[in-house]
Write a structure and sequence with these properties.
about 525 residues; alpha/beta; Leucine Aminopeptidase, subunit E, domain 1; Aminopeptidase; 2 domains; seven-stranded mixed β-sheet; about 30% helix; elongated
Length: about 525
């Protein structure tokens, strides 16, 4: 067994507050930030609310400063002005932040750009949210939260800290605004949690550790938690999870979390979320090249997304029952490793011939999905996984892919992706590729190849029964290659905001359960 490691205390997201006052009317603030709007046609840029009063107070022509900086107001553009003023002794910085076309995406990106510009500051008061259209205040908050994200394992502490407080100035604290703020904090917080879990190095993160994190968050969120150890997995026939985890010194786990809305009866629709929880992926005996392993601590992003989503369901007022399943294993190499040519017997009896030990994610997902269908009888089943490199080839690194066997569910997933800023593109479940799954000795070959993302989805579809199902293959967006707006370099935790936006709607499975089995 590896010696236990101790993760140092991590940085926390900023705190957010609403204020009807302009930035210059709020005492003790270190930074003021004002939106910059592109001009009409060839006209000059325009400044948002509070900027004119600030300019008079400071005796500075902010429009002239923007012109000198050749500012255009494009989204994410930040012009910085160091200042000092006797009447505002705490003030050190004025920031002018471009908001582009002022879409929800633009405000999310502006919030993230602002957050990066004020790291290591105590506070910022900004009127960005004051000009956001109805329902878009949350985009500013989510962007500022996730643009602040940090993770460290340094002996002398983090290299930088998020700004401690963000005051949304010019925004009265009405009940509606507070509800919108609370929802945004839940969405951003879930993204932060998923990103943190995916970033933890695998010398600490293993299946038992992940199960312990699930217990902690279940206690915090009032969820019911069940964990299968290796003995129970064997007794109940979870052959895929056991085979993938067989080579590791840290045994596999199946994690189950259950959420039930207050006063919900058994007739309330039931959604099951399944997240791939491969805590490290060497590729097994079909070993990955060294470079291919550098990001594999995040191969449990799907599991992290499911855990983070479950923790925040009550915060977004999810009206349906939700069960989260995370099949967790480390795909390692030893004398116990599964071999090419082995046959795995999944929960429920379907078999898979293992012709590529690096196609392990579908083996653990299959067990959890088969269990969900046979034992939980859900109305809707959604799995999330960093599953195939083929998806990255198809979509690059800024769009996730998904498959669905139901049109209404596909529409709901697409809409939630657009609204949340986690955009996804629907891929086709092409039945013509089914023949690639054929095995001479088992029900299916786990290494069908060919159109890799599609054949992986077709493999999983056999474990969905007649349940409405969506498969999110987020391998394309599992890692951000560079700092870009709300994305920070490294694991993204992609999917938590999307799922919460969908499940936090008034009727998330409305129109999906006419023939469901809830």
């Amino acid at each position: 067994m590896r010696p236990a490691a101790a993760l140092p205390t991590q940085v926390s997201p900023p705190e957010f507050a609403l204020s009807a006052h302009a930035p210059h009317e709020i005492g003790g603030v270190e930074c003021w930030a004002f939106p910059v709007l592109p001009g009409d046609g060839d006209g000059p840029v325009q400044l948002g609310p509070g900027a004119e009063q600030a300019a008079e107070l400071l005796g500075r022509d902010l429009l002239d400063i923007l012109e000198s900086a050749r500012a255009t107001g494009r989204v994410g553009e930040v012009t910085t002005l160091p200042v000092a003023h006797d009447d505002h002794p705490d003030l050190r910085l004025v920031l002018l932040v471009g908001v582009g076309a002022q879409t929800a995406t633009d405000f999310r990106r502006a919030g993230a750009s602002l957050a990066r510009a004020v790291k290591d500051r105590s506070s910022v008061a900004t009127t960005l949210a004051a000009i956001a259209p109805e329902g878009v205040l949350g985009a500013v908050v989510v962007g500022a939260m996730l643009g602040s994200f940090g993770f460290h394992w340094r002996g002398d502490g983090p290299a930088e800290q998020p700004v401690r407080q963000v005051v949304l100035a010019g925004v009265p604290g009405s009940d509606d605004r507070r509800v919108e703020l609370d929802r945004a904090l839940a969405l951003g917080g879930a993204g932060w949690r998923a990103r943190t879990l995916a970033t933890v190095p695998s010398n600490l993160k293993n299946p038992p550790w992940l199960a312990e994190q699930a217990r902690v968050l279940a206690d915090e969120a009032g969820l019911r938690v069940t964990v299968w150890d290796e003995e129970r997995l064997a007794a109940e026939g979870f052959g895929g999870i056991l085979a993938v985890g067989a080579a590791s010194d840290t045994p596999p786990r199946l994690i189950r979390l259950d959420y039930r809305p207050e006063s919900a009866g058994d007739d309330v629709p039931h959604v099951v979320l399944v997240g791939k929880g491969i805590t490290f992926d060497t590729g097994g005996l079909d070993i990955k090249p060294a470079q291919g392993m550098t990001t594999m601590k995040r191969d449990m992003t799907g599991g992290a997304v499911v855990l983070a989503t479950m923790a925040a369901l009550a915060d977004v007022g999810c009206p349906v029952r939700v069960t989260g399943l995370v099949p967790a294993a480390e795909n390692a190499i030893s004398g116990r490793a599964m071999r090419p040519g082995d046959v795995v017997v999944h929960h429920g009896g379907r078999t898979s011939e293992v012709n590529n030990t690096d196609a392990e994610g579908r083996l653990v997902l299959a067990d959890a999905m088969a269990y969900a269908v046979s034992e939980l009888a859900p109305d809707v089943l959604v799995d999330v996984a960093t599953l195939t490199g083929a998806m990255k080839v198809a979509l690059g690194q800024q769009t996730g892919g998904f498959f669905a066997n139901d049109e209404a569910l596909a529409t709901a997933i697409s809409a939630a992706g657009e609204e949340s800023g986690e955009r996804v593109w629907r891929m086709p479940l092409v039945a013509d590729y089914e023949e690639k799954l054929a095995s001479k000795v088992a029900d299916a070959d786990n290494a069908a190849g060919g159109a890799g993302a599609i054949t992986a989805a077709l493999f999983l579809q056999h474990f969905t029964g007649d349940v409405r199902w969506a498969h999110l293959d987020v391998a394309s967006v599992g890692d951000a290659p560079e700092e870009r707006f709300e994305w920070t370099t490294g694991p993204t935790g992609f999917g938590a905001r999307l799922l919460l936006t969908w499940l936090g709607g008034d009727d998330p499975v409305g129109g999906l359960t006419a023939t469901g089995r809830g």
